[in-house]
Write a structure and sequence with these properties.
Blueprint: E1 2-5, E2 11-15, E3 18-23, E4 26-30, E5 37-40, E6 45-46, H1 48-56, E7 60-64, E8 70-74, H2 81-91, H3 96-122, H4 129-146, H5 152-177, H6 195-217, H7 236-241, H8 247-258, E9 267-270, E10 273-276, H9 278-292, E11 295-298, E12 301-304, H10 307-320
Parallel strand pairs: 1-5, 2-6, 5-7
Antiparallel strand pairs: 2-3, 3-4, 7-8, 9-10, 11-12
Helix pairs in contact: 3-4, 3-5, 4-5, 6-8, 6-10, 8-9
């Protein structure tokens, strides 16, 4: 389990061979054998003897700032959880295990896209034959991904090509389903050429931060990618693992545009496109947070949608070190 110390005034110290957490007058003791990592934020305190106990049990300690972003960590200096996880991540790169991990992430992303389009079509009275054709093609791409075998170096561009084709079909369909005012021609980045892509890019930016934090807390290295190649200061694993969770941004943003709730005054025009202004950010962030915090059933338990990212990162890390057969 992860131990989160995120309440102001929380105090963690060692009591015998146990951790003791004190909040005001209340205290609780926990065996280090039950803890995989300790996450500290919001002016919580930890003593040096508690840090030493954590090191003895190879428990990773992560410090978060007031925004929830990691700014430091302590881990056991010898081979163990975090180092071992990173080494195993490097080891699967040129093996079929690495390819299979990528296939799972990309397939899950494409299925999310397909399922969302099916949901949107089912709720509409009008027929959208073009969207239905796109869904069929996206389904074909899922089959193509499943049939790929070998290693990632040989199949990287095939996977990226199929994924790119699915995304193109998906966003073409999304545009078809939007009111005329908000229709767009394909994805555009910074600056985006239209309002929809402007908001989408901003939402993805928030999601990238959540993804990186989950990766670090799980003991993975955000800079060691499998599908996305390693470049200086490029968080390749973030780009790899974020794919299945993009729907958490796409879904609420689509509904805001389809219901005509996004106002022109939320945008500032630039030479080659648009950017979201402060009013736009204030409007969209609470909507995204509400989507992130929705509770759903996932793997036989109730969990917030955003917490699925952390759960999946831990599952992947445990798979790498042999504690799980799958992830």
């Amino acid at each position: 389990m992860q131990l989160f110390l995120n309440t102001f005034g929380t105090y963690l110290h060692k009591k015998g061979e146990l951790f003791e957490i004190r909040i005001d007058e209340k205290s609780k003791r926990i065996s280090p054998k039950r803890i995989s990592s300790i996450v500290i934020s919001n002016a919580a305190q930890i003593t040096t003897d508690a840090i030493q106990l954590a090191m003895e049990y190879n428990i990773d300690i992560v410090f978060l700032d007031k925004y929830g972003d990691p700014y430091g960590r302590i881990w056991f200096p010898k081979l163990g959880s975090t180092t071992y996880i990173r080494r195993k991540l490097l080891e699967i790169y040129d093996k079929e295990e690495g390819l299979n991990a990528v296939k799972k992430w990309i397939t899950r992303k494409i299925k999310n896209q397909r399922d969302f389009l099916k949901l949107l079509i089912a709720k509409r009275e009008s027929n959208y034959p073009g969207v239905n054709k796109d869904i069929i093609k996206i389904d074909e791409n899922i089959s193509k991904i499943s049939n790929i075998s070998g290693n990632i170096d040989d199949k990287r561009y095939s996977i990226l090509g199929i994924e790119g084709n699915s995304s193109r079909l998906y966003f073409e369909s999304i545009s078809k389903l939007l009111p005329r005012k908000y229709k767009f021609k394909g994805r555009s980045f910074r600056p985006a050429r239209d309002h929809f892509n402007t908001v989408l890019n901003y939402g993805y930016g928030i999601l990238y931060g959540k993804m990186e934090k989950a990766i670090i807390i799980a003991g993975l290295d955000p800079y060691i990618g499998i599908l996305h190649t390693d470049n200086y200061n490029k968080k390749s694993l973030v780009f790899d693992m974020i794919e299945p969770y993009r729907i958490l941004v796409e879904r609420p943003i689509f509904y805001q545009f389809s219901r005509r709730k996004v106002k022109d005054v939320y945008f500032q025009q630039e030479k080659q496109g648009f950017r979201l202004n402060d009013d736009g950010k204030k409007y969209i962030v609470p909507i995204l947070m509400e989507e992130f915090d929705k509770t759903i059933r996932y793997k036989n338990r109730s969990i917030k949608q955003i917490d699925i990212i952390q759960a999946d990162c831990h599952s992947f890390a445990n798979y790498l070190i042999g504690k799980k057969k799958d992830f």
